[in-house]
Amino acid sequence: MTLLAAPAFQAPNLAYGRLSPLLIIFGVALVGVVVEAFAPRELRYQIQSLLALAGLVVAFISDVLVASSSPFSSSAGTGAFGGIEAQGAIAVDGPAMFVWGILLVMTLVSVLLVAERRLEGGLTAFAGQASALPGTEAEREASARGIEHTEVFPLVMFAVGGMMLFASANDFLTMFVGLEVFSLPLYLLCGLARRRRLISQEAAMKYFLLGAFSSAIFVYGIAMVYGFAGSFTFADVDNAISSRVGADGLLLLGMGLMGVGLLFKVSAAPFHSWTPDVYQGAPTAITAFMSACTKLAAFAALLRVFYVALGGARWDWQPVVWIVAIITMAVGSVIAITQTDIKRLLAYSTIAHTGFLLTAFAGAYQGTIVLTNQVSSLQAVLFYLVAYGFSSIGAFAVVTMVRDSSGEATHLSRWAGLGKESPVVAGAMALFLLSFAGIPLTSGFTSKWAVFTAAWEGGAWPLVIVAVVMSLVAAFFYIRIIVLMFFSDPVGEGPTVVLPSMLTSAVVTVGAAVTILLGVVPQPVLELARHAGEFVR
Amino acid sequence: MSYSYAPLLFFAAIGAAFAVFSVVGAGALAGPKRYNRAKLEAYECGIQPTPQARGGGRIPIKYYLTAMLFIIFDIESVFLYPFAVAFDKMGLFALVEMVLFIITVFVAYAYVWRRGGLEWD
User: Fold this and answer.
1) Domain containing B100 — which CATH number?
2) A237-274 burial, b if ≥16 CB within 10 A, otherwise e?
3) Tag placement on chain B: N or C end, fewer CB within 10 Å?
4) Contact B86 A131 (CB under 8 A)
């Protein structure tokens, strides 16, 4: 029998210590499911929220420990440090550890929003019984009994674990597993809103169908690239490209299909159409989580695939990325002008930001030496995502606080005169919007400066010019909301700002603090991103 | 391209033409045409479909749980068989890994059991 004649088995060499941030997160998620099964209903919320927060903190500490004990890579001279673990499946290198750390911090902030209970009168913003049909007796009974779905905490933990795996995967199969592990919980979480359940379920359905298609397209691309290179590992694909062994057609097809899958996740046009619907329908805490964390993980993976595995075919993919970047910036900035819903508007704003990030990606500028003051494309993108993520979480946190009797008042007309009703909340929102617009002394300015510099150095100066023009267009609708909040009179009864608990207040405070700090003193984080270096190959 | 493939292509073309003719041409030319309303309905083993159940013919969500549990244990056994066959070659490491895997699967099972997923009504 051939099975018995198989070569001797060798146990894979797994560096558990260096993979510990991932293992802790997945472990905590599993424990969360056990808690959900055995803990009494009254205690679940407390146990789950504390467990999630503790897990994130411990994982963050272990990430810092792993990063501080990482040796410089053997491929010296590139400024890369860390190494490839788990038999070549996971790259625990500088960018990966940086992304892990930022993902964990941003998830921590998002979990505070998820745990908020005061805004809905003592319950979380998630459906009490998701299986009950909207508008039925079962739903009313569930909400009358104060039932909560505390499964959201383990789901968020699974999602962030998948994102970490996705951002650090060093072969295509691991990357696909990571993609699915973070996508499936997100599809669920999108459909769990307590208010406006139909639109929430519609968002989940749309996200699931389109996401399933994009995953399938991504896998098809992987198959093509495997046909070209005969391997899933990024290093082998890179070797195959530089030695020109395979059939070019397979490579181009695979590259295009994988590009579609990844650009879908970062919501670049023309693969952006899910973004406004999903961002609008999903519970706002989950929208905040997605806009910050999914984007960071997906960009990290996009850059890793295209720089490490497909870097040799740069002349083939670069022109396409140029076009996608221009379309994305234009679609995001122009269509946002016509939006009347604050969540849809922020969704189009996130599309425009994806376009700005793609300019640096298209520039593909690799800093010559780490010691110089320049940032490479990768470092600029990472810095931008840190700055954008915190502003975005803060902005969505403000959205959860502006309410009327039917829940969140997301229509823009309801925001008129908010500055008179609550100057602090409107001021925080204005700060986040100014940051999105890229006004100096906010993080939006320094991060835009970083990506545009990297794109310019990489020779993508026409893109930078388009990006600056589009920033001006985008500034128009951000400023329009500020004018609406401060210089318009409220229509009818006007909006009310519900006083949240410590949790949401903390989120807005952290968001605003990071937005100002990164605008005034960006050096420490920029230095950290630069220190993270380049991908290990 | 070698000429040795030419007969293959020839046969493929004849086969395709025959299939297309049987479906499109022959039936229209030679077949009897008797109207019956059941023929235009969705296929239901020859009987006429009954009016749909309350809720627009939806399937109770309980079937979904059963299907998911089936998949969980199906996948588990897919991994258990090769593990059992090659166990003596792989030693302690594989045993620990398999125990971890089974624990993970049973976490999902425990969740379904405790939340009442196994009770039909």
Assistant:
1) 1.20.58.1610
2) bbebbeeeebeeebbebbbebbbbbbbbbbbbbebbeb
3) C
4) no
Any alpha helices (H) in A39-93, and if so which ranges? 41-68
Domain extent for A372: 20-71+78-532
Domain that holds residue B68: 55-121
Question: Which three-class secondary structure state does DSSP give residue A19?
Answer: coil
By Cβ distance, the residue of A3, A6, A34 closest to B107 is A34
For B89, the closest of A9, A30, A36 (CB atoms) is: A9
> A508: closest CA among A404, A393, A347, A402?
A393
Decide if A205 contacts A222 (C-beta within 8 A): no
CA gyration radius, chain A = 23
**Cα maximum dimension of chain B:** 70
DSSP A362-421: HHTPPPS-TTSS---HHHHHHHHHHHHHHHHHHHHHHHHHEEETTEE--BGGGGTTHHHH
Q: What is the pLDDT of residue A404?
A: 82
Residues of chain A with pLDDT under 50: 1-2, 75-77, 368-371
Q: Is A14 within a domain?
A: no
Nearest CA-CA distance, residue A11 and chain B, Å: 7
B94 domain residue, yes or no: yes
Q: How far apart are CA B76 and CA B81, in angstroms?
A: 9
pTM here is: 0.87
Is residue A207 in a domain? yes
Helix (H, G, I), strand (E, B) or coil at B48: coil
Q: With the C-alpha atoms ordered A48, A52, A57, A63, is the resulting torsion angle positive or negative?
A: positive
Interface touch B91/A38, C-beta < 8 Å: no
Write down the pLDDT at residue B27.
80
Chain A interface mutation, best of B75, B88, B89, highest count of A Cβ atoms under 10 Å: B89
Count how many domains chain A has.
Answer: 1
Q: Which residues of chain B have pLDDT under 70?
A: 1-3, 38, 42-59
Domain count, chain B: 1
CB contact under 8 A, B91 and A131: no
Token pair for residue B120?
A: 């039909």
- Report the distance separating Cα A436 and Cα A354, nearest Å: 12
Nearest to B107 among A6, A11, A30 (CB): A30
Residues 6+ apart with CB under 8 A from B66: none
* Location of structure tokens 């919007």: A433
- Give the pairing of strands A82-85 and A90-93: antiparallel
Structure tokens given for A258:
């994988």
For residue A193, what are the contacts with CB-CB under 8 A and spacing of at least 6?
A125, A126, A127, A199, A200, A281, A282, A283
Is residue B49 in some structural domain?
no
Q: Shortest Cα distance from B40 to chain A (angstroms)?
A: 30
| Cβ atoms of residues A49 and A501 within 8 Å | no
Taking CA–CA distances from B61, the nearest residue in chain A reads A131
Residue B33 included in any domain = no
Closest approach of A34 to chain B, Cα-based (Å): 6
Is residue B30 one of the residues assigned to a domain?
A: no
Structure-token match 């030319």, residue found: B29
Q: Is position A194 within any domain?
A: yes
The chain B residue lying nearest A13, using CA atoms, is B93
> Out of A8, A37, A131, whose CB is closest to B61?
A131
Asked if omega into A270 is within 30° of 0 (cis), the reply is yes
Q: If we measure between CA atoms, which residue out of A101, A57, A106, A164 comes closest to residue A394?
A: A106
User: Which residues of B are less than 8 Å from A177 in CB distance?
Assistant: none
Using a CB-CB cut-off of 8 Å, the residues of chain B touching A6 are 86, 89
